[in-house]
Design a protein that fits this description.
With 119 residues, this protein is mainly alpha-helical. It has a domain at 21-90. The protein has 6 helices and no strands. Helix 3 (43-54) packs antiparallel against helix 4 (60-67), helix 3 packs across helix 5 and helix 4 crosses helix 6 (81-90). The model has no long low-confidence stretch (mean pLDDT 81). Residues 87-119 are annotated as: Disordered.
Length: 119
């Protein structure tokens, strides 16, 4: 039985499962070309790549697109519970994360000058 190390989005030291050249081509590819480009990879490699990309904010969407080409079992083998979540999210329409974006409306202005008392 082949033992492989499970990777996690929480493991920043995990090496990319594909060559830098392949990764560069994927990052520059049009969204509709990604599935065709990853056809040459085994499902286990695609699953590890999906987890790797999903865990980085600038490649999050690409990770979901590649995860959509994988079965749930392959994603679970690659990342455990994170693989389950990745599988479920990859089957839904993509929505960009909202963390780090400014919310309009109820923001209070902050003054560094302190409170002013009127007499």
């Amino acid at each position: 039985m082949i033992q492989s190390r499970s990777i996690s989005v929480d493991d920043p030291s995990a090496a990319c499962p594909v060559s830098p050249e392949t990764l560069g081509r994927l990052l520059r590819a049009q969204p509709d070309a990604i599935a065709q480009m990853t056809d040459e990879l085994s499902e286990a490699e695609r699953a590890r790549l999906a987890v790797y990309l999903y865990g980085r904010s600038h490649t999050h969407e690409l990770g979901l697109r590649i995860a959509a080409t994988c079965e749930g079992a392959a994603l679970r083998r690659a990342a455990g519970l994170v693989g389950n979540t990745l599988y479920e999210q990859s089957r839904k329409p993509y929505t960009a994360p909202t963390h780090g974006t400014a919310q309009s409306g109820s923001k209070r202005k902050i003054s560094l000058g302190g409170a002013r008392l009127s007499s």
